[in-house]
Amino acid sequence: MGKKLHIFKKKPIKYSLIVVGMIALVFVSNLYLQWCQNELSFDLVFKFAFSWHTEKFILGSFVLLIFLLFLCSLAGSLALGSLLYGITIGILGFADYQKMFYRVEPIYPDDLKMITEFGLLREMIGTIPFIFILLLAVVGIFFFIRAIYQSRLLSKKMQIIRLSGLVVTIGLLMYISNFNNPNNLLRKAYDKTALWIPYSQKMNYYNTGFMGGFLYNLKIEAMDKPENYSKKTIEAITTKYTTAAERPNNSESTEQPNIIFVMSESFSNPQNLAGVTADKDPLKDYFDVAKTTYSGQMLSQNYGGGTANIEFEALTSLSMELFNPQLTTPYTMLIPKMEEMPSIVSLLKEKNYQATAIHPYNTSMYKRKDVYKILGFDQFISEDTMTYKEKLQKNPYISDKSAYNEVLDLLKDDKNPQFVHLVTMQTHMPYSDKYTSKDYSSQSVGNKKAIDSYMQDIAYSSEALKQFTTALKDLKRRTLVVFWGDHLPSIYSDEIKAANEEVQLHETEFLMYDTQDKLSQRNNHDALSSPFYFAPTLFDQSNMEMTGFYQLLSELEQEIPAFEKGFYYKNGQWSKTFNLNKAQQELYEDYRLIQYDIVSGENYSLKTDFFK
């Protein structure tokens, strides 16, 4: 069989037919990727390829051809190289369709790092499709490895031809991987006709094709260098806000309360959306707490996903809006490359806090184990090391109540103040068939079963939060809690989405709770915020010592209370554009310069007391 499969031993086959066959495979596979990207619309696919964007379709096909030739050269077999190519493209297109369906967001190159997260992938796409894809991949890889092993039997002349093809295609793929270099010839070819839309990756992929969008999201610098960036400029900014942050010392500003961050998976209020009502409020227990303290709605970067990015913003107080759009996941693309990253963790560690991260799931998701270490956490408690692991009925995830019990156990140690960062899992998708009985019945346009199950989920979550805040009152040490939902679940029908403004699909609930009820804005229950404001807001309202960095953010929040790419809340209203007055522009520019200095610059600010 091996002899028949080797491309170099198939002399009777006309080489012209081989070339035509490979080109046809590449064109069909590119059409398939575009079909998956365009929600299985053949009409849009053919218009894109042969009417609207033919040049970009051909460029994308050229890249796919190089990838196909690489696999064939590596295997030494046209048939098996093509087989693995077909399986790879098939899985990639399916993954893109699934992500677009659930999160209204395409597959990025960095998403491929999640390929080993078998448990999460199975839960997202279903057991049967997952098993089928896994078996398909295993079969393809088996025969591919077998072909590589058999290729040692090729003649010396054929080995030279094969290795030459391998070297050339590897070189071309490495060159292509540098797509975002302005001197890259492939990028220049795309630029002749491509209209890049960095603020909307969904539209970016639609306008430039799946391949164009995928290439656009290859490696890039986190931020472009601001024109006025210099050591002198950064020193002026750090001095300005550090001076403004100084407060007279008093008993409250020097005390060290426990601080608890709770990022609740997919926690939001479904009845905030037009087209969704319920027979009773699933968030009653949540609002029993929220209406007694500072609370409101948070602007999430994503719909249906993006958990790690919201977590990144909350811990570091850096904004995703300021990054180049290709930097889609800082946890995997940025932080692992850094030796240090200023955050609320590093700040509190300097104040002798014990810092613990808790996530009732595995440690590999989004490289959390590595990220938490760089951020400065003392320990990371996962599903494997938790004491409390109770699950609710058929829910596959550890309950919020168990997670809160884990936090309460930590807080029994009163020797040092503690910072605990909890990322829950109970309310993670899927949302159907979790519970044998449901106490809530929705009136919704489509997907009622999932919405009813989701309401039961958040009702249990609300109950657990209320019990948790009640238990915290028994602690001797003052304890502060920041609770927020990371994003809406991806369960709402197209009809519901169409009935609401886009920003409403990005608004979740948040609150800040103080066991001593001393927050300065505790009577404000209609606040609007972004997650990168959480830490400075908490410090300011609880009268804790402010850093220069938090002072900058506090002043920026007064002018621009919430913003993400495409969503800007300023002067009391939402806008799709970022038109700023002079005061707003100055604060925003100072913030942008500091963030650039940290992630892409010379770290001038880290050599000062700006973050201390």
From TrEMBL:
Pathway field: Cell wall biogenesis; lipoteichoic acid biosynthesis
Superkingdom of origin organism: Bacteria
Topology within the bilayer: Multi-pass membrane protein
Classification via SUPFAM superfamilies: Alkaline phosphatase-like
Keyword Transmembrane helix assigned: yes
Compartment annotation: Cell membrane
InterPro entries: Alkaline_phosphatase_core_sf, OpgB/LTA_synthase_biosynth, Sulfatase_N
GO MF term set: transferase activity
Pfam family, one: Sulfatase
Membrane spanning residue stretches: 12-33, 57-76, 83-104, 124-148, 160-177
Keyword annotations: Cell membrane, Membrane, Transferase, Transmembrane, Transmembrane helix
GO cellular component: plasma membrane
Name of this chain's protein: Membrane-oligosaccharide glycerophosphotransferase
All residue ranges annotated as the Sulfatase N-terminal domain in the record: 257-541
